[in-house]
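Instructor's aside before we start: the two examples that follow are unrelated to each other. I chose them only because their records fit on one page, so don't look for a connection. First example below.
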Amino acid sequence: DIQAELEHNQRIIADFGKQQGNASWQDGEFKAANGVKFLACGRGQSPRGLRDREARPDYIVIDDLDDDELCRNEKRVHDITDWVKEALFGALDVGRGRFIMVGNLISKNSVLANLTKTKGVHVSVIKAIDKNGEPVWREKWTKEEAQEYRDFVGYRAWEKEMMHNPIVDGTIFRADWIRYKKLPRLSKYEMLVCYTDPSFKSTTSNDYKACRLWGKIGKELHLIDCYVRQDTVSGMVRWLYDLYERTRDTAAVQFFMEANFMQDVILDEFDAEGKLRGYQLPIMPDKRKKPDKLQRIEAVSPLWERGFVFYNEKLKESPDMQTGIEQTLALERGSRIHDDAPDADEGAIWMLQRNSRQESFQPVFGKRPTAKNIW
């Protein structure tokens, strides 16, 4: 790219003169008229001893070194990291000069990830959108274009390619544990719970909010309806009121939200929507003292593995359902991914399990057994 600009960019030529030298102007290795030499190297190619007379390189740029295939091989990543630190950085004059690596953090097992952990390295992180969902490069694309891109590639690819947040599948949940089925009428369920996780940043549209309607029927737990969106609190509240109106004539749904979230800002939104509709949503606080979030979600994951959990087949292709599943599959310790959907799932399932327990022992009438006939 630099060679093409020096050779054909008329503005550069007008200001600085013709830069294409006569002595050395090969593709990928050339010297400009002012004496500055440029060299392009491939990944792993040896740059040892590189110099132009007495001058050694004083500016090295690494651009998009990582790729998906490389990141799947830990040894190759280790070897290329060594090449960057030893051969490539060693081409500078005892470290003097500028040494820059540009790229997307597509994997935690990558050369870029390794370099960001290196002492003395300054890391500049530029994400596609800011905390309010606005594109950082506003001259390039609009907020609507960013949303269209995200809708097409999906949550996981968006986080990996555009937000420097690589996600590894299957750390807690596995894709083959996700099962769909045609669900019965709401009146058939023993208990119905809609649990809401509105997220801490209640006014930030970039944060996910999750509402999950679960039902228990026999040993099975069914995800009947769901809302997982980057939306405002008012948008979430409207969805909950709509759900209540869709279900109140056929079944009794219990609405819960973690007590810590039931603050004035959120309750004001419920109150305002209730005044418009003429009634208040009967939502209750979940006051239990919760252990670590990931521990709670891990504790219910065997229900998926053992085949007790099913998702509504009718909503299989809906963005809310797919976003929730992607968040569930992406869960792992130390990750910065959104976990609002699986957190709400755990809350609903805990309520269903607690309130619909069935005794499994058989009562025995007659003489109390003695120690002799017990053992």
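Example two begins here.
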Amino acid sequence: MGQRKTANHAMSIGTRLFTWLNGELVGTDEFGNRYYVHRRMKGQKREKRWVLYNGEAEASRVPPEWHAWLHATIATAPTMRAKAKDWQKPHEPNRTGTDLAYRPPGHTLMGGQRAKATGDYEPWRPA
């Protein structure tokens, strides 16, 4: 794991240098991720857009509206768009593989005891 941290750290320095030289801050999301556009490509048909993560570089930490902007699905950044609707839930990163992951009743890490079948299930028995 130490090697991975070093590799990410080195890559981060290059990305930060590129951002410092060429990036223009467009906005930030509720997680503190910062979104940039290439200064010289701004307004062109295929702008170069990228994100600097606040913490671990994990793509599932990018909210849907920013994901749409990064992939040029929408032209204007979410900071310039209307706020979320009342019925929309806040974005949550993918928790798979963490202690916060969903584990249904009966999961081995949740005690391994599932509820008894209600009688609508008949197990297969070999002949």
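Helices lie at 2-22, 64-70.
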